[in-house]
Design goal:
CATH superfamily of the largest domain: Ribonuclease H-like superfamily/Ribonuclease H
Number of helices: 12
Mean pLDDT: 79
Low-confidence stretches: 297-334, 340-344
Number of strands: 7
Structural class: alpha/beta
CATH architecture of the largest domain: 2-Layer Sandwich
Shape: elongated
CATH class of the largest domain: Alpha Beta
Distance between the termini: 58 Å
Strand order of the largest sheet: 5-4-1-2-3-7-6
């Protein structure tokens, strides 16, 4: 370790001085320079290349917690998370950092009826379309703010509805809800939770939920923790998609956000899902459900791969939208851009 440190800093400090400070001999340093790299050093070099490739693929979004299982899969065996952290720190491969800045998007000063907090911070869901969260966030551009309405399915932390606009009209949240309803076509008991903003308390929004038999739940006043997973998604989107970017137009921001939503749903590992992607988690859950059916799975389904926990990409009957499908952005007749409805 001492010799390696001297080699890394030999262009900054005198070699003789570093040898004296670290109590090593100059002859020992010269001998170390002539030795072949150790197996550990060779493994570190290969790991660094894989980490750098992973950060390029994920655009610098992965920290050590997500990078460790990514590298472990490549090696076919577990790689220590602390080792990954050390290599990322030493070679400047850390993930993006969060920044503190907030625009108020919740208008709770209104006379519209407010629903009770039925969710009560119970963020566990045993199946898709059981609990949805909704919220509005914002993205800065040179043309002004771009507002983004999102709908999140708690089961797999999957973004199932979104819409974007230069303002925050009630139509923005309705469009995001329409995308979620069209894509997922929920049946059974579903709880829709949001803050108590005027867009979500509006009568036409409540009527749309009531028409589908969806139960309404709202956070307590000024308590963002009641909608914590949705707030976390907003923050993640800002860090991984917005911070460090300069959007000259709202259209540029729209395209970047749509690309990120597709990445988030199908490629980004989620720590609360056991470091698998939302699409993979949903697919695995559906596989297990079909495996548990009397008589086994349908004949058309080929079953899990024998050598890994990942499943084949065979078409599986579904009731909550295509497991890997992600809607793309499409313009509507208004100024709001949404993901189109995916037909089952």
């Amino acid at each position: 370790m001492k010799y390696a440190w001297i080699e890394r800093h030999r262009h900054s400090y005198a070699t003789t001085m570093m040898c004296e400070l670290l109590s090593v001999s100059r002859s020992g340093l010269n001998a170390a320079r002539g030795r072949k790299p150790s197996k550990h050093a060779c493994d570190d070099k290969r790991l660094i290349e894989q980490i750098r490739a992973g950060q390029q693929r994920h655009r610098g979004r992965y920290g050590r917690r997500r990078m460790a299982p990514e590298i472990s899969e490549l090696h076919g065996q577990a790689v220590n998370e602390k080792r990954i952290e050390r290599l990322m720190r030493e070679h400047g491969l850390q993930s993006h950092k969060r920044r503190r800045f907030r625009v108020v998007t919740t208008d709770s000063k209104h006379a519209r009826p407010v629903a009770p907090n039925l969710l009560a911070r119970d963020f566990a869901a045993s199946q898709p379309n059981q609990k949805w969260l909704a919220d509005i966030t914002y993205v800065p551009t040179d043309e002004g703010w771009l507002y983004l309405a999102l709908v999140l399915d708690l089961y797999a932390r999957k973004l199932v509805g979104w819409a974007m606009s230069e303002a925050m009209p009630q139509e923005l949240t309705r469009c995001a809800l329409d995308v979620a309803l069209g894509w997922r076509d929920p049946h059974g008991r579903l709880v829709h939770h949001s803050d108590r903003g005027s867009q979500y308390a509006a009568q036409d929004y409540r009527n749309k939920l009531a028409a589908r038999g969806i139960t309404v739940s709202m956070s307590r006043k000024g308590d963002c923790w009641d909608n914590a997973p949705m707030e976390s998604v907003n923050g993640t989107l800002k860090v991984e998609c917005v911070h460090g970017e300069h959007f000259q137009t709202r259209e540029q921001a729209r395209r970047a956000i749509v690309e990120y939503i597709g990445y988030y749903n199908t490629e980004r590992r989620h720590s609360s899902l056991g470091n698998v992607t939302p699409a993979q988690f949903e697919r695995n859950g559906l596989v297990h459900e079909y495996m548990a059916q009397p008589g086994g799975p349908p004949a058309a389904w080929q079953g899990p791969c024998q050598r890994s926990k990942h499943y084949t990409q065979q078409p599986i009957p579904h009731r909550f939208g295509a497991p890997c499908a992600t809607p793309l952005m499409a313009g509507t007749s208004s100024s709001i851009a949404t993901g189109p409805v995916v037909q089952n």
